[in-house]
Write the structure tokens for this entry.
Amino acid sequence: MLRDKFWENYTLGELNSSEWDALCDGCGKCCLLKLEDKDQIYLTNIACAQIDLRNCRCRNYEKRTELVKNCVSLTEENLKINLKWLPYTCSYKLVSEKKPLPPWHHLITKDRETVHQAGFSIKKNCIHETKVEEKNMRSYLIAEIGT
């Protein structure tokens, strides 16, 4: 059950599992492969093979952490560790910082397509990892989409 404007009225720790999942804007940016070099994390436009690029949703959401060894299942506890690579538009990041959701967020617009229409998703901007050889991954380094 979703409480009215839960993202404004409750902390991440107070959200129920339905609210936690609903908070995700569906941009897919957390499913982009990242390359690490010393203390730097580089974002690529290579998407996890499990993501459906038509809707930016995981094909195997319930089993994602079993199927993808580096898949991060965000929790309130690990959010702080992951803040450095999450996009500035990430709803979990925004709520944790007590900032408003962007106007294109589906909880505001009641339409899951607005994240794509506003250009803040990875839809149409990525390639699946199955189509990229590991030796060529550096060729896919990008700045954050939407910035």
